[in-house]
Amino acid sequence: SRLLHTFCPKQDSQLISFGARSSVGTGGMESKVKCASWALDHNVGVVISNGQYDKAILNIVDGKKIGTFFTKTSTHTVPVDVQAVKARDGSRILQRLSAGDRKQIINKMASNLIDYSKDILQANKRDLDVASKEGLKTTLLNRLGLSDKKLQTLATGLQQIAEKTDILGQTVRQTRLADGIMLKQITTSIGVLLVIFESRPDSLPQIAALSICSGNGLLLKGGSEAKYSNEILTKLMQDALEPFAPRETIALINTREQVADLLQLGKYIDLVIPRGSNELVRSVQKQSLQIPVLGHAEGICHVFIDADADLEMALRIVRDSKCDYPSACNAMETLLIHKDLIRTPFFESLI
Predict the structure, then answer these.
(1) Are 205 and 269 part of one and the same domain?
(2) What is the reported pTM?
(3) DSSP 8-state symbol, 30
(4) How far from 250 is each of 84, 146, 170, CA to CA, in Å?
(5) Helix or strand holding residue 195 (H, E)
(6) What are the per-10-residue average pLDDT scores of the chain (351 residues)?
(7) Is residue 296, in this structure, part of any structural domain at all?
(8) Which parts of the sequence belong to the Aldehyde dehydrogenase domain (predicted)?
(9) Structural domain range at position 21
(10) In a domain, 198, yes or no
């Protein structure tokens, strides 16, 4: 059994069954559901909740996910805990696949990015139009945008990942403890990953490919500003996966689930990876009390050119690290040069 956060009487009545009535009271949960459904039919909002929870009514009014909200609106989304269970089942199948099978999946993901580039860019344009109307910052708009060049670069990156699918089951090191007893450290899958990322739909195929490569189920929580882009990219990744494993092994959480709610699913999720701003990472680390978080510190995007460096190579690196994709989160922010290079022809070429 599980808690239903929303309940539509016309759609969900067959999903529930009631136990024996309580020996006291007025009929138990079955009576409560009937009364709540009657109130809903008469246009009265209803939430069934445990009244002993601290500030339960205030939290309900604030829109927090407390108890079960009754609604007339039919929904066709799969609950997140169910998605997590299916992702776990899929990860077990992935782990049994050969490295060659996982390689085929990822290469198909790469080819789908090129074969369906028009559909991807059309969905991305919808996101950009909405984001522009809502006044999204220019830097975030640039990260949100996709192009044929970006898709080609993504496809090439996925093909490179496909060459590394033999990483599972490898012995990293081993120690002989006694005659006939060996202690080995062997690479293995983690289970189910929850990856939370912001405004960059091009990161979704990368995350999916790395998850398949390592034999992990995957739950994706992207930013709402990339809704349409994330949906089509997830579908294409699932299409590539389906001949070998259930498409639900990769799932996009597109409901209005709060991150705090997702971080309560420690029973189903093995690792959380936030990918985004320093604020996002710190927030996830603070809220996740049940699930380990693989976070990162704030990046320092500096380049230093030493006096003994290959100056021709250094110039190419500096230009590429800033001019190729200025709005990227790892684009160069600060250039440091050795004092002996000041007022040299190389210094002038940098300016």
Answers:
(1) yes
(2) 0.76
(3) H
(4) 9, 22, 24
(5) strand 192-197
(6) 73 70 62 86 85 79 77 73 90 94 97 97 96 87 92 96 92 92 94 90 95 96 92 97 95 76 87 86 87 80 92 92 79 91 88 79
(7) no
(8) 62-343
(9) 6-70
(10) yes
Single residue among 70, 98, 113 that ends a domain in this structure: 70
pLDDT tens string 6-33: 778 877 776 677 766 555 555 578 788 8
* Cβ atoms 284, 221 nearer than 8 A: no
Shared domain check, 105 and 17: no
| Structural domain total, the chain | 3
How far apart, in Å, are the Cα atoms of 97 and each of 90, 326, 351?
11, 40, 53
Q: What does the alpha-carbon distance between residue 106 and residue 237 come to, in Å, rounded to a whole number? A: 8
The β-bridge relationship of strands 181-186 and 171-178 is antiparallel
Q: Identity (one letter) of the amino acid at 46?
A: V
Q: What tokens does 165 get?
A: 């699918």
75 token code pair: 């929904």
